[in-house]
Amino acid sequence: MLMDKVDRWMPEEPTLGVIGMADLFRDEDIVVNPKRAGYPVRLMGLMAIYPKKNLSALGGAKYTHPYLLRGLPINRPNQVWAIDITYIHAQRVHVPDRHY
Predict the structure, then answer these.
(1) pTM (predicted TM-score)
(2) What's phi and psi for 86, nearest 5 deg?
(3) CA 91, 94, 99, 100: dihedral to nearest 10 degrees?
(4) pLDDT along the chain (100 residues), means of 10
Protein backbone atom coordinates (compact mmCIF):
# COMPACT_ATOMS: atom_id res chain seq x y z
CA MET A 1 0.00 0.00 0.00
CA LEU A 2 2.79 2.46 0.89
CA MET A 3 4.79 1.60 -2.23
CA ASP A 4 1.82 2.25 -4.48
CA LYS A 5 1.36 5.70 -2.98
CA VAL A 6 5.08 6.52 -3.24
CA ASP A 7 5.03 5.34 -6.88
CA ARG A 8 2.14 7.68 -7.55
CA TRP A 9 3.63 10.69 -5.72
CA MET A 10 7.27 10.64 -6.86
CA PRO A 11 6.66 11.56 -10.54
CA GLU A 12 4.36 14.38 -9.43
CA GLU A 13 6.64 15.68 -6.64
CA PRO A 14 10.25 14.64 -7.44
CA THR A 15 11.69 17.06 -4.87
CA LEU A 16 9.99 15.40 -1.89
CA GLY A 17 12.21 13.75 0.64
CA VAL A 18 11.31 11.33 3.40
CA ILE A 19 9.80 13.98 5.66
CA GLY A 20 7.68 15.31 2.80
CA MET A 21 6.48 11.78 2.09
CA ALA A 22 5.54 11.34 5.74
CA ASP A 23 3.52 14.57 5.51
CA LEU A 24 1.68 13.30 2.44
CA PHE A 25 0.86 10.05 4.25
CA ARG A 26 -0.49 12.06 7.17
CA ASP A 27 -2.63 14.12 4.79
CA GLU A 28 -4.28 10.85 3.71
CA ASP A 29 -4.82 9.79 7.36
CA ILE A 30 -2.04 7.19 7.31
CA VAL A 31 0.02 7.71 10.45
CA VAL A 32 3.68 6.98 9.78
CA ASN A 33 6.91 8.44 11.07
CA PRO A 34 9.71 9.50 8.66
CA LYS A 35 11.56 6.20 9.16
CA ARG A 36 8.52 4.20 8.07
CA ALA A 37 7.82 6.59 5.19
CA GLY A 38 11.44 6.27 4.02
CA TYR A 39 11.44 2.49 3.90
CA PRO A 40 9.59 2.13 0.56
CA VAL A 41 11.59 5.03 -0.87
CA ARG A 42 14.89 3.28 -0.04
CA LEU A 43 13.55 -0.12 -1.12
CA MET A 44 12.62 1.23 -4.56
CA GLY A 45 15.91 3.14 -4.88
CA LEU A 46 14.24 6.54 -5.29
CA MET A 47 15.98 9.81 -4.47
CA ALA A 48 14.70 13.35 -4.20
CA ILE A 49 15.86 15.69 -6.96
CA TYR A 50 17.47 18.86 -5.62
CA PRO A 51 20.70 20.79 -6.16
CA LYS A 52 23.47 19.01 -4.29
CA LYS A 53 25.98 21.00 -2.29
CA ASN A 54 29.13 22.44 -3.86
CA LEU A 55 27.90 22.55 -7.47
CA SER A 56 30.78 24.71 -8.64
CA ALA A 57 33.55 22.41 -7.34
CA LEU A 58 35.77 20.66 -9.85
CA GLY A 59 35.08 17.24 -8.37
CA GLY A 60 37.59 14.70 -9.63
CA ALA A 61 38.75 16.84 -12.56
CA LYS A 62 42.52 17.09 -12.82
CA TYR A 63 42.48 19.66 -15.62
CA THR A 64 40.68 22.98 -15.94
CA HIS A 65 40.14 24.19 -19.48
CA PRO A 66 41.62 27.62 -20.12
CA TYR A 67 39.43 30.65 -20.78
CA LEU A 68 40.09 31.17 -24.48
CA LEU A 69 38.52 34.63 -24.71
CA ARG A 70 40.87 36.32 -22.25
CA GLY A 71 42.47 39.32 -23.89
CA LEU A 72 40.12 39.24 -26.89
CA PRO A 73 38.51 42.64 -27.45
CA ILE A 74 34.76 42.06 -27.77
CA ASN A 75 33.47 45.13 -29.60
CA ARG A 76 30.51 44.10 -31.77
CA PRO A 77 27.22 42.24 -31.26
CA ASN A 78 27.17 38.46 -31.75
CA GLN A 79 30.96 38.27 -31.76
CA VAL A 80 31.01 35.83 -28.84
CA TRP A 81 28.36 33.44 -27.58
CA ALA A 82 28.46 31.46 -24.35
CA ILE A 83 26.24 29.15 -22.35
CA ASP A 84 26.49 27.82 -18.82
CA ILE A 85 25.18 24.28 -18.44
CA THR A 86 26.50 23.50 -14.97
CA TYR A 87 22.97 22.98 -13.61
CA ILE A 88 19.71 22.66 -15.49
CA HIS A 89 16.60 22.25 -13.33
CA ALA A 90 14.35 19.42 -14.47
CA GLN A 91 10.68 20.13 -13.84
CA ARG A 92 9.27 16.81 -14.90
CA VAL A 93 11.06 13.50 -14.54
CA HIS A 94 9.86 10.40 -16.34
CA VAL A 95 9.78 7.47 -13.98
CA PRO A 96 9.18 4.12 -15.68
CA ASP A 97 6.34 1.94 -14.41
CA ARG A 98 7.45 -0.46 -11.73
CA HIS A 99 5.91 -3.81 -10.98
CA TYR A 100 6.50 -5.26 -7.53
Answers:
(1) 0.45
(2) -65, -30
(3) -40
(4) 78 80 86 83 77 69 81 92 71 62
